Structure to design on (715 residues):
C-alpha cells in the first residue's frame, strides 16, 4: 500500500506538470476577482500558510475561531477604500507599512476610487498583490448615515443568523458504554450526544452599532440538561457602539485587545506571531468585539476607546470564571485555594472535566494611551504606553520543575509597556518593551524598508528574559510564551520578475534557560525560501522549502534523571499548482513532503498529496469544492498540517499522521439572496490501523467520517 500511495502521489505531480504545459493563457484574474464571501479558501492562500505554520509551531489543537471570525468578517464586510480611515487600512492583510502609507497617500490625493485596477498605478501594487487583498477591500460609494431613530434602526439594520450542526462517525467508545461501565468509570463515558451545535446572530447598523451573540455545545456535552441546563455550554455576546464623535469604540461583552507589537497584551491568536514568510508589521488592532468560541483565552466586560487627535485613549476591564486543576480548596470556604494549571480544552463532559469548570475567577484590567504625529507623508511617529493588571481568586502554583522555575506563580501580576513606530522616507522603525511585576523585562525591535518598490526587507530583534511573566502576550517568537528567548529574524520579499515573486527568511534564536523536555540552554535556527510563479494568465505555481534546527532531550533509560540533548532537524517541501482551464473551474494540486527527527539518524519521511477541484460555474449550487488527499506519514514527529476547505466561519487544520486517504466535499446552495446553505462531508481512511483515537475517543475500524450542515439567513 505504501508503494501504491507513492505512485499515486507522483501521478498527481505529473498531472500538475501536464496542466502547466498545456494551459492556455487566460482567465486567472477573472477568477481571483470574483467576490464570494462564503468561500475564501483558495483566495487567501498566504493566510492559510501562516495558519498551518502556527498550528505546527504550537504543537497543539488551537481554537482559531477568533481568527476565522476576523478574516471572514473582513471578507464579508470589506474595507471600503472610498470611506476608510487610516486604522481601517491597517486591517488589510498582506500590505507592508510602506504600501499602506502609499495607499493612504493615493486616496488622500485622488479621492474616490472607481475600480480596483486603479491601484496598479500605486508604487509597489502589482496584480499579484491586488489579487491577494481583493477579498478584503471594496470601492463602493460612500453611504450617508441617517439619524439613529427607531425607524431607521429597523429599516437600515442588517440581521445575520447562522446555525451549524457537526458530527463525527462512527461514535466513539465514550458513547457506547453500558450503564455498568458508566457507573464503574464515569470519566470514560460522555453523558451528552456526539453532535456539536453552534449558532451566532449579528445585528449591524452601518459602522455605528453592532450586536452579537453566539453559543456552542461540544460533542459529549449535555444539552438543556445536567451540567448544561441552559442549553449551550458556552455563550459569547457583545454590544458595540463605534465612530460616534470622539467615541471610537464602546464594547460591552466579549472582546479582544491588542496594542503595539502584542508584547504587553495581545489576546487571541494573531497571524505573523510565528517566524515564517510573513514580512508584515504587526498592527495594533486595539479593542475589537468578538464571538470566538475559545472558552479560556477570552475577555468579557467593558471596554472603550476615545480619539481626540492626535491622542487615542482606551481602557478595559474583564471579569469571568476560568477552568483550572485544583490542588487545594480554601479551608475556610468552598472556594478554590490553589490551582496547578489552567485548563484550556473547553470540554465539560465527564466528572473530572466538570470538577475543573469555573474553578476560579479572573480579573483583568488595563489600558493604552497612544500619541500620533504625522506632519507630512515622509515622516510620522506613534508612541504608546500600555498597562495590564490581572488578579485571580486563587493562587497559581504549578508543580516545581527546573524548566518552569521562573514561571508565573501567585494570584496577581502587573505588566507595563511602551511601544513606538517611526516612519521616515519609507523606512519604518518599531518596537516594544514590557516589564512584569517581578521586574522581568522583554523587548522587541524591528526595522522594515523598501530599497526598491519590488523589494521589501525586515529585521526583528527580540530579547525576552527568562524571568518575564505575562499570560496575555502574543508577540513575535518561537515560544508560546514570550519568555526565555533571544533571537534575530530577517526576511525578504522580492518581485524579481513581473511574474515571479521570491520570499525568504532566517531566524537565529537561543533559549537561555531550560525548556519542557529540553534540560539545557539551547541554540537553534530556522530558515525558508518560497517562490511563486504566474506561469500564464491562468496558471500559478508555488515552490516552498523550510528547515528548522533545534535541540531536545535524547531518548533516556527509565528513571534517568539527567538527559543529554541532541540536535533535532525538520525539513519541509511543498509544490503547489493552481490551474483555471475555463472560467468557473479551478484545479489545485499540492504535494507536501516532510522529514523530522534526530539529525544524526535516518529520519522518517512523510508526504501528503492532494487534488482539489473548485466549481463556481452553476447558479445552483453556487460553489462546489472537492478535495482528495493521499498521505503516508510514518512518524508523529513528521506530521504535516494542511488547511482544509470549510464552511463559512469554520476552520480545519488537521495534522496528517499515519497512512491512508482523506477526502472532503463542501457544497454551497443559495436558495435566495437571503438564505444560504452549506453541506460539508469528510472521510478519512487509514490503511495502517484497525482503530482510531485513544481512550474515550477510540473508535473501532479504520474509517472516520465527518458531517457538517450550516444555514445562514440574512435580512
Amino acid at each position: 500500500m505504501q508503494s501504491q500511495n507513492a505512485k499515486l502521489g507522483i501521478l498527481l505531480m505529473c498531472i500538475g506538470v501536464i496542466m502547466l504545459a498545456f494551459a492556455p493563457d487566460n482567465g486567472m484574474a477573472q477568477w481571483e476577482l470574483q467576490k464570494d464571501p462564503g468561500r475564501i479558501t483558495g483566495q487567501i492562500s498566504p493566510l492559510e500558510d501562516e495558519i498551518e505554520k502556527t498550528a505546527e509551531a504550537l504543537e497543539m489543537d488551537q481554537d482559531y475561531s477568533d481568527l476565522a471570525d476576523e478574516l471572514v468578517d473582513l471578507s464579508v464586510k470589506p474595507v471600503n477604500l472610498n470611506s476608510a480611515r487610516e486604522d481601517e487600512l491597517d486591517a488589510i492583510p498582506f500590505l507592508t507599512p510602506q504600501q499602506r502609507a502609499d495607499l493612504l497617500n493615493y486616496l488622500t490625493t485622488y479621492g474616490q476610487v472607481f475600480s480596483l485596477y486603479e491601484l496598479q498605478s500605486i508604487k509597489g501594487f502589482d496584480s499579484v498583490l491586488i489579487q491577494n487583498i481583493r477579498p478584503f477591500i471594496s470601492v463602493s460609494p460612500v453611504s450617508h448615515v441617517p439619524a439613529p431613530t427607531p425607524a431607521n434602526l429597523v429599516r437600515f439594520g442588517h440581521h445575520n443568523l447562522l446555525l451549524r450542526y457537526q458530527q463525527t462517525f462512527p461514535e466513539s467508545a465514550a458513547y457506547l458504554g453500558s450503564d455498568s461501565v458508566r457507573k464503574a468509570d464515569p470519566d470514560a463515558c460522555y453523558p451528552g450526544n456526539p453532535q456539536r451545535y453552534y449558532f451566532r446572530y449579528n445585528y449591524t447598523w452601518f459602522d455605528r452599532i453592532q450586536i452579537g451573540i453566539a453559543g456552542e455545545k461540544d460533542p459529549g456535552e449535555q444539552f438543556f440538561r445536567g451540567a448544561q441546563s441552559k442549553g449551550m455550554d458556552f455563550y459569547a455576546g457583545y454590544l458595540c457602539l463605534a465612530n460616534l464623535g470622539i467615541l471610537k469604540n464602546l464594547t460591552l461583552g466579549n472582546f479582544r485587545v491588542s496594542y503595539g507589537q502584542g508584547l504587553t497584551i495581545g489576546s487571541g491568536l494573531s497571524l505573523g506571531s510565528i517566524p515564517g514568510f510573513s514580512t508584515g508589521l504587526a498592527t495594533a488592532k486595539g479593542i475589537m468585539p468578538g464571538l470566538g468560541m475559545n472558552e479560556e483565552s477570552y475577555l468579557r466586560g467593558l471596554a472603550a476607546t476615545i480619539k481626540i487627535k492626535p491622542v487615542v485613549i482606551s481602557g478595559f476591564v474583564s471579569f469571568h470564571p476560568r477552568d483550572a486543576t485544583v490542588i487545594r480548596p480554601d479551608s475556610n470556604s468552598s472556594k478554590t485555594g490553589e490551582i496547578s494549571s489552567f485548563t484550556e480544552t473547553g470540554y465539560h463532559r465527564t466528572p473530572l472535566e466538570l470538577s475543573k469548570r469555573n474553578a476560579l475567577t479572573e480579573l483583568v484590567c488595563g489600558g493604552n494611551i497612544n500619541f500620533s504625529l504625522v506632519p507630512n507623508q515622509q515622516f510620522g511617529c506613534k508612541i504608546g504606553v500600555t498597562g495590564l493588571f490581572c488578579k485571580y481568586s486563587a493562587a497559581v502554583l504549578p508543580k516545581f520543575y527546573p524548566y518552569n522555575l521562573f514561571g508565573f506563580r501567585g494570584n496577581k501580576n502587573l505588566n507595563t509597556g511602551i511601544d513606538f513606530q517611526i516612519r521616515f522616507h519609507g523606512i519604518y522603525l518599531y518596537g516594544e518593551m514590557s516589564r512584569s511585576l517581578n521586574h522581568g523585562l522583554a523587548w522587541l525591535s524591528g526595522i522594515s524598508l523598501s530599497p526598491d518598490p519590488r523589494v521589501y526587507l525586515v529585521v526583528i530583534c527580540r530579547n525576552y528574559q527568562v524571568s518575564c511573566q505575562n499570560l496575555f502576550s502574543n508577540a513575535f517568537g518561537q515560544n508560546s510564551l514570550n519568555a526565555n528567548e533571544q533571537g534575530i529574524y530577517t526576511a525578504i520579499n522580492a518581485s524579481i520578475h513581473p511574474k515571479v515573486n521570491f520570499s525568504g527568511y532566517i531566524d537565529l534564536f537561543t533559549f537561555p534557560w531550560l525548556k519542557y523536555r529540553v534540560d539545557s540552554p539551547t541554540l537553534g535556527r530556522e530558515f525558508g525560501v518560497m517562490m511563486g510563479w504566474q506561469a500564464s494568465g491562468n496558471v500559478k505555481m508555488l515552490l516552498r522549502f523550510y528547515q528548522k534546527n533545534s535541540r531536545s532531550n535524547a531518548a533516556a533509560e527509565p528513571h534517568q534523571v539527567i538527559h543529554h540533548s541532541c540536535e533535532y532537524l525538520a525539513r519541509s517541501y511543498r509544490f503547489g499548482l493552481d490551474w483555471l482551464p475555463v472560467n468557473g473551474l479551478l484545479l489545485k494540486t499540492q504535494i507536501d513532503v516532510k522529514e523530522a527527527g534526530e539529525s544524526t539518524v535516518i529520519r522518517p519521511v512523510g508526504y501528503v498529496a492532494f487534488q482539489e477541484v473548485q466549481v463556481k460555474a452553476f447558479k445552483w449550487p453556487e460553489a462546489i469544492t472537492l478535495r482528495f488527499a493521499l498521505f503516508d506519514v510514518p512518524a508523529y514527529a513528521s506530521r504535516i498540517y494542511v488547511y482544509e476547505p470549510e464552511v463559512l466561519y469554520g476552520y480545519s487544520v488537521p495534522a496528517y499522521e499515519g497512512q491512508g486517504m482523506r477526502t472532503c466535499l463542501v457544497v454551497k446552495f443559495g436558495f435566495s439572496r437571503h438564505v444560504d446553505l452549506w453541506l460539508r462531508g469528510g472521510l478519512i481512511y487509514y490503511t495502517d490501523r484497525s482503530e482510531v483515537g485513544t481512550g474515550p475517543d477510540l473508535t473501532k475500524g479504520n474509517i472516520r467520517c465527518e458531517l457538517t450542515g450550516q444555514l445562514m439567513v440574512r435580512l
Q: What stands out?
A: The chain has a mean pLDDT of 86.
